[in-house]
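Pasting as-is:
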Amino acid sequence: MTTTLLVLLIASSPVLLLALFFLFPIFRPIKTESDLSTPGFPWWKFYYIKKFLRPVRRSAGGKADEIEFREMPFEFDKKPLADTRHAVIHAVGDLMCRPDLRGAHEPLWQDIGKELFSADLCIGNLEFAVNPNWLIHRLYRYSVMPEKAEPFLGDPRFGHFHILTLGNNHINDSLSQGIIATCDYLDTKAVLHVGAGRTIQEQDEFPIVEVGGIKVAVLSYTFSTNGIPREKTFLHGVNLVRFNALDDEDYYPALIHRHIGLAKQRRAEYIVACLHWGVEFEQYPPLRIRERGRALLDAGIDCIIGHHPHILNPVEHYKTRDGRDGLIFYSLGNVTTYALIGYTKKIGEIAGITLESGADASGRRVVRPSKVSLLPFVYFRDAVRGRGVEHRLLPLFAGAQAVRDRTAAEQYPRRARGLLKRSEKHYRRYWRQRGIEYR
C-alpha cells in the first residue's frame, strides 16, 4: 500500500506543481520581453499562460512601487500666463479586431462616444492591418476587411479618431502589403496615421496638428512585430524600437531621438509619443520600462501614451531635467478584446490631458499640462435576440453607481451589471491614483 501511494505521489507531482504554479500568484515576475517569438526554454511560456489566466497584480519593485504610484502628486506649474488658451487631448489603448464586429455598429460607442470624441485631438491604437487582399484572423495574426475596421474609426453621432497609431506588433501581420493597404484605407477615411508607412520619406512625416493654437506632434513606435520579420526592402515600414529589451545594449532609441529633433525643427510645441511597450498581463511596468520612459521625457518627449500589456498600468508624473511636467500613461489597456478572458482585460481608460498655452512674465511662450483625467470603461459583448451580437463600452464608475442605485436594470443586461461591479472593485483597489481626476 505504501509503495503504491509513493508511486502515485511521484507520478502526480508534476501535475501538482503545475497546478500550484497556475493557482498561486507570483509576486516577482520573470523578466521577459513579452514576445512569444523569443527562442529558448519554454518555461517562460508556461509563465505567460499563467499570466494570461491570472494576471500579475503586484509590482516587481515591491510594495514601495505600488504606494509611489497610488500617492503620486499631479501638481503642475501654476505660474500665471497671459492670453491663456486650452486644448484637450483624449487617448485610448488597443483597438482589437473582432470577427463579429463590422459595419456601422451603433451600440459600440453609444455610452462613451460623446465623452471620448469631444476632445480637440483624439488618438487610438489600431491593433490590426486592414488588407482586403490577404485576410488573416488567427490567435496571433490579424488582417481584416475594411468593413471590420470601420466601427473602430468612430461614430457619426459623436465624432471620430483624428489620429490612429500603427506602431504595434500586429501591423506587420500581412507584411508590406498590409501596411500599405492600411495606410491607403485610412487616407480614404481622412484619418491621420503614424508608426508605419509606405515609403522611407513617410517614416519622418509624422503628423503635427494645431489644436487650441498649440502645435502637437504625434509619434508612434513598437517593441516587436511578433517574430514576423520585416521585409528586407521594407524595413522602414514599421517604427521598431526594442523598448522591452532585457539589456540596455539592445535598446537603441535613435529613431525616436531623430523624430524629436525633426518635431522641434517643425516647431512642434508639445510632443506625444505612443509607445507599444511593456509586459503583457502585468499591472505594473518593470523598472527598465520606467527608466527608458523617463529618459525619453528628458530627451524632449512631453507625454507618453502606452499600450500593449492588454491590462491597465498606472500613470506617472515626472519632472524632466529641464523642468517640464512630463506624463507617462504606461498602459491604457484595451478598448475591445479578442480571445482575452477575464474581466481585468476588459477594462480600459480614456486618458485626458488638458494643455494650456500663454505667455509668462518674461513674454516667453509656454505650453504645459494643466490637468490629467481618466475615464475608465468596460468592454461588454452580448448576444441580443433578433439583433445578433452587440458590443458596448460601458463607463465604469457611472455604470457601477447605477447598479448600486438599482437604476441600471433598463440600461445594462444582468451580465453587464455583474461585470461592472467586479471591475469597479478591482479598479479602485489597484489602479485608482490620488492625484488624478476621474470621470
